[in-house]
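Researcher: Quick one. two chains, 560 residues in total.
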Amino acid sequence: MNMKVNFAGVEFNNPITTASGTFGSGMEYADIVDLSRLGAVTTKGVANIPWPGNPTPRIAETYGGMINSIGLQNPGIDVFIKRDIPYLKECGTKIIANVCGKSTEDYCETVEKLSETDVDMLEINISCPNVREGGIAFGQNPKAVESITSDIKKRSKKPVIMKLTPNVTDITEMARAAENGGADAISLINTITGMKIDINRRTFALANKTGGLSGPAIHPVAVRMVYQAANSVNIPILGMGGVVTYEDAIELMMAGATMVAVGTANFNNPNATIEIIDGIADYMKRTGINDISEIIGCVK
Amino acid sequence: MNKKRYQIISKEIIANDIVSMWINAPDIADKSAAGQFVSVYCDDKSALLPRPISICDTDGKGGLRLVFKIVGKGTKELSDKNAGDGVDILGPLGNGFGEAFDKIKDMDHPDIAFVGGGVGIPPMLISSKSIKGQKNIILGYRDVTFMNEDFSEYGNVFISTEDGSAGVKGNVIDCITKNNLSPDVILACGPLPMLKGIKKYSEENNITAFVSLEEKMACGIGACLACVCKSNETDSHSMVKNKRICKDGPVFDVKEVDFT
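Model:
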């Protein structure tokens, strides 16, 4: 039985990674999760310089999900390279480094520095709904998606995954724009912009007013968008959005994802990634699947 | 460490919406230190995030006591459970009053004040129990008192209520001044206005104070960066001035915390 996947030329032991921002740099979970068992750790978004993030409250629970507006707090690329990459390498896990920025130049500076490290792939966040500049500003306009993808590709020595936002009318347009810009892969979906009002305090639950909705509440949206994207481009997909169980992960793979990221579920169950990997293995045994790649995009 | 299911030993409603629960959780209880907390998970999977609840007490026999207020659907679900029921918990988590205790041990017979306000009172029980010395315990309530008798074996208990129905009418600072207490060090947990008051009082009187903070949390283990507080010094995680309440705290030297 083979759970290995080849994703844009990189081989992973299994298709499960973590969704950026929910798993820190892996270190924080190491007391609970054997990081070497993950297909990869996708790290918290890192920028060219440290970012302080947004004011608190930064999160609020919603029915079957949560909204967050962390604002991409991060220590900057230099600390990340010195502290987090060596740690993860020591743990024997593959690394997908998530990159954020406010301008094309910011992204490219970080990408160039990461190109000289041991990370396996880069995931470029052009879809964060919680920062005013950069982030989603790039991700909602196909011309901007294509242009930033192509600029990053010129400067990157690592395979590049462009992370797309679901806050668009036509996801296939953005997926094609990333492909046209030369992306090696795409990942989707980032969070869906939401809002929660505290009716007792008559104010917004989050200091930033809006935040990104994640968790099982958004899973069907993720399945639909992964399916649509998979049927419009030829580059592979890292699917994510409300994956809680192995069934959810398999669903995204059948919709067309080669790899799957687990995010908000880590908060409900810190061991969710490992249980999902074991669940997929059981499912393969039970249903006679010899190679996990048999199910990728099998539902047409 | 991992989230595990533990059995509830007993449950008691000790005041309006305040629940006291003993849980058989030896692997958590044996490692728990004053000021740490646990993440309690809901069985209702529409409520995804763990509820951070401070550790109130341990009994040395594997028992873990949590005292919490019913504030939403997570704490309501927990409060509806009874002896024999299971509950999913991860812990102990966070950085408690250890640094405060180290400072106290370096001082010459200090007058220690343990200050708890409202639902910030429970963690002061294990805290006041965990160190020897001259101890005054100041408990502030809105109206109905609870747990005050539990504290009597660990120090002199002083009470304040906002409505004046018991003890000093006013807040915990009023209680300290009206009882002519002059603490050398304060350990406190309570609502934000109270902690701001403690910061002001400690600065005016040039005394050491440690406070336990609260914020909405998602992971509870330092990964998601939801529960940060502004700090005066650069934090070790993100190299900005945002300490993680769940991991660097919840207890901080009040001098480190920027409440602005």
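The CA atoms of residues 50 and 75 of chain A lie 4 Å apart.
Researcher: Thanks, that's what I needed.
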